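Today's session is about reading a structure prediction critically. Students often jump straight to the picture, but the first step is always the sequence itself: look for stretches that repeat, for charged clusters, for runs of hydrophobic residues. Only then move on to the predicted structure, which in these notes is written as discrete structure tokens rather than atom positions. Here is the chain we will use throughout the hour.
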Amino acid sequence: MEDAEGSSGASRRGFLKLAGMGTLAAGSAIAAPSAGAAPASPRLAGPLAQPAPVPKAKGPRCVIVGGGWSGLTLAKYLREAEPKFDVVLIEPSSLFFSCPLSNLWLGEVIDLDLLTHSYVDAARAGGYVWLQAMLADVDREKRRAWTTAGYVDYDYLFLAPGIDYHYPSLGVEDPQQQAMIATHWPAGFRPGSEHLSIKRKLEDFEEGIFLLNVPPGNYRCYSGPYERACVIAGWLKREGIAGKVVLLDPHERPAIKADGFLHAFETFHKDHLEYVPGSNITGVDPERRKVITEFDEYDFADACIYPRVRASRLIEQFGLAKKNSPQFEADIDPLKYNVRGDDRVYVTGDARPMPFSKSANTAYTEAQYVARLVAARERGEDEPWVSPVTSCHSMVSIDPPMSISIESRYRHNGKGEEWDFAGVKLVEEPSEGLGKANVEWGRGLYLDLFG
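Below is the predicted structure for this chain, in token form.
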């Protein structure tokens, strides 16, 4: 594979490639299977009440909602596991943008082209249909999904809608203030527009504090905020900017690869990064550009403010969220992934409740297992549970590019829904070799899913 090319910032061509990116949205409530249930969407009329413009199914139809790492992997591997499956991927965005490796683009270690890919290419390579639409409703009794392009009937439905942000976790209840924070200081862990905004922020940054934070709970990419702190601190040093990163963390040590990150903070970024552990954010004053913690207040010139992660609102809207879940994640069989009581509907990726890392390689390997599982069920067979694999490289220096890494699996301990780590491989000594492996990992996954 070719080496990653450096970037002098987002090119005009690169920015234009991202035009038209949408977001996954849900409309009305889901209809659970029940005797004599009414149609889920009697108000849908006209074109929405007609079949969507997809070919007639040639076999059991698998409908996937969400074209992130989990949904794309399912779309390809369902057909590999059972060639007679007919697969439709529903995703409103016109272009795939990868959160993984995006920090490297912010630091100009890679070019934007490495992160952006075509759903047309993915569908052609995987032999499935991509329907550019948003999900509007689902009737699980009739096995019908309504979209903004019409309805699609299914034999199996897979919901892989990803995450939303939960701003009340920051002590911010006012929707106007939530919108202000999201607009002016986006977290940068939902793909596309947020990343473009952060890139522009860095290019315009002149001096002062660039504030980042680590959210509580199981958030998207455990190492992501720490890696981003290193990348931005490296950017400030490279550009000779009189500023520093302040990273607020509710944990007493980094939540993952702690020794490696602490070593990097001290060795590479001592003059441009202040790490503040044990800092729980209790409020944000957007008008005064101030973040309040239990013990201190922090003024900032610019920021990426990261609330607690929650499952996409689609899960809650459809009545599939676990009771008392602080992150509104789906109530599914933790080993089989189907919605409880319904082996025709599955939830995968970052909306699932298991405490696996919300990261690309986890979603990628998890979806391969679910694809084999559903193919086996279609044949009347069983598929033994296989742990997803969390493989995570974190760039801690951009000059030169150096990374640390961790790989782990998971083990169900047989006690309800409790899990342990298994087979952890941790490398906390940064190296340029791991920096290259970081990029090549992404290239390998892109090649597999997009051809």
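Discussion point for the tutorial: The first helix runs from residue 12 to 17.
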